[in-house]
Write a structure and sequence with these properties.
The protein is of the alpha+beta class and about 575 residues long. The protein contains 11 helices and 23 strands. It folds into 2 domains: about 220 residues, no CATH class; about 300 residues, TIM Barrel (Alpha-Beta Barrel). The longest helix has 21 residues.
Length: about 575
């Protein structure tokens, strides 16, 4: 194992963005080198028409090259190397959802107690919610912000995406947050659309909804709005072309998907648990499903969605196009496993848009499939400060890694020019490193291994870290493509028993074609060759067994990608 040392990082300068990448600079004003560089990028589909969603057309991704980048422990958002790593959860339900029960303050207090720095309240889009829910929950959210000053509490909603699954939609807090969310839900929620709509009309409405959110930001109604697709493979109805179209509709709003669904307790074996499928992924294809997806799509793999868990699969097919598309994890908390409460008696949800406050129930709930926010999964965001805007900016830039069961404490991954030992080098997660062809680059990785118990009261042990690399091949001809044949696990690092830290420097070779890199790690308890074969992924996550999938015995982390492109 290579050993590096700690690096601090400085801030990028606008001037660092090459003129070849700036669409406002005409070809005639470029140097010959920049003209040829721009030609290469256009040829790869990374500039110009069709590049709406490429890493180079997204200012956040291009600007992320060289950002300060290091990680501190989540919970209290420790600062290290200029970033505060803030743990959060963007998918949480309350008594304002027809299938949930807790107060906003209860979910928020639990999230904070379990180490979260930020969370999003996402009650379901429905007829009752569209009419009154957005307004009714807002005073509870504002009161929670006042009471819990050290927790960033966003208001969002769970969107019924027309023609597709659900999504988290949320906005920056402010005087128009209710107005924007309410107008969005009433015009674009699947529950509010005519039953006579065709699939094409519904898909177009989903795109219009994402564009509407971007427009509210441009009009300064809200400071930011984000969309993340939830449990994308659960029913097989988020087709590859829909995901690409959402991203293209507005890459500053549509930024990614749940890499792993919530409901992770649902796989705990009966009679101690529900005895269902992890993530409630227990469906089969229907008439609405995308016909190209294999049956394995409908189950989780090591608790993660098939789109994320399959090396060379759907997520990689987007990254290989140069599309910035990030993964997150969260709780989707509705009703908590082993809880002893129930909805308040005498509730009339249809009339009031909420259930009465929960009351004591002496029976321990072993059939619930959810954990409290922060108890099991967390989305770790590299923020420049403790603020709503900084969390949204960090998410948009892809400075994100995720884990289950607090598998690791901190993670700092960068790609840099090989041998560059200056203290300010390294491109962070979500970033783009641009170097001349033939330049050697390397990955530097530092992981602080876990040394305190997680919320199940044991200290998780990281066994292995995988480096996954794929070529950037530009836009696909078929928008329903979901394979990236060039992507594979190129290196695995075994973690020494008893180690406190994993420090790795891994040579990525001389740059001959554009590529991206992402990381994955595991406790090593349950592995099998990936769906694309052992040559692509020899020790991937195992297909979860419905009825017997204890989430605590199968822990993984995933990072978002870093791209390396020729100058």
């Amino acid at each position: 194992m290579g050993h590096g040392h700690h690096h601090d990082h400085d801030h990028p300068h606008a001037a660092d963005v090459s003129p070849a990448l700036d669409p406002h600079v005409p070809d005639s004003e470029l140097s010959p080198a920049d003209v040829s560089r721009r030609g290469f990028l256009r040829g790869a589909g990374l500039l110009g028409a069709g590049a709406a969603a490429s890493v180079l057309a997204s200012p956040s991704a291009a600007a992320a090259a060289g950002l300060p980048h290091a990680h501190g422990p989540a919970g209290g958002g420790a600062t290290q190397g200029g970033f505060r790593w803030l743990a959060g959860d963007h998918h949480i339900h309350t008594q304002y959802s027809s299938d949930a029960q807790y107060r906003v303050i209860d979910q928020a207090k639990h999230g904070r107690a379990y180490g979260l720095d930020w969370l999003v309240i996402t009650d379901h889009g429905s007829n009752a919610h569209a009419k009154i829910g957005v307004e009714k929950v807002n005073p509870d959210i504002r009161a929670t912000r006042e009471e819990l000053r050290d927790l960033l509490t966003f208001q969002g909603l769970e969107w019924n995406i027309p023609a597709a699954e659900h999504a988290t939609v949320f906005v920056h807090p402010g005087r128009n947050e209710v107005d924007v969310l309410k107008r969005f839900e009433q015009a674009y929620d699947g529950s509010q659309l005519p039953a006579t709509n065709t699939e094409a009309q519904n898909e177009a409405t989903a795109i219009a909804g994402i564009k509407f959110l971007g427009e509210q930001v441009r009009r300064r109604k809200v400071e930011g709005a984000l969309f993340l697709a939830n449990h994308p493979s659960r029913r097989g109805i988020d087709s590859p072309h829909e995901i690409r179209n959402w991203r293209d509709a507005d890459p500053t709003v549509a930024i990614g998907m749940e890499g792993a669904p919530g409901h992770q307790a649902a796989g705990i074996k009966a009679p101690n648990g529900r005895g269902g499928a992890r993530g409630l992924y227990d469906n089969n294809p229907s008439a609405a499903s995308f016909a190209g997806y294999p049956l394995e799509t409908y189950r989780t793999w090591g608790g993660f969605d098939w789109m994320t868990a399959t090396v060379g699969g759907l997520w990689d097919s987007l990254l290989a196009e140069g599309r910035a598309w990030w993964v997150t994890v969260n709780s989707d908390s509705h009703v908590v496993y082993l809880d002893q409460s129930q909805r308040g008696p005498g509730s009339d949800f249809d009339a009031n848009g909420k259930y009465n406050d929960p009351v004591y129930n002496p029976a321990v709930n072993t059939s619930a499939g959810d954990f409290w926010p922060g108890f099991y999964g967390r989305t770790n965001v590299g923020a420049t400060s403790f603020s709503y805007k900084a969390v949204m900016d960090g998410l948009r830039a892809g400075r994100v890694w995720v884990d289950h069961g607090r598998l690791i404490k901190t993670l700092d991954a960068r790609v840099r020019v090989a041998g560059d030992r200056r203290p300010s080098t390294g491109t962070p997660l979500g970033g783009v490193l641009q170097v001349r062809r033939g330049t050697s680059t390397e990955l530097t990785l530092e992981i602080d291994l876990q040394d305190v118990p997680n919320w199940a009261q044991f200290v998780p042990v990281l066994k292995r870290v995988d480096v996954i690399v794929g070529s950037v091949t530009g836009p696909v001809a078929d928008k329903d493509s979901f394979k990236a044949p060039d992507t594979r696990v190129v290196k695995s690092f075994e973690v020494s028993p008893g180690a406190r830290k994993l420090t790795v420097t891994y040579a990525l070779g001389r740059l001959d074609k554009p590529f991206y890199l992402r990381l994955r790690g595991t406790d090593g308890n349950r592995t099998q060759p990936g769906l694309m074969g052992a040559a692509t992924d020899p020790y991937g996550p195992q297909l979860d067994v419905a009825g017997d999938a204890d989430p605590w015995g199968d822990l993984w982390f995933y990072t978002n990608p870093i791209w390396v492109l020729p100058r």
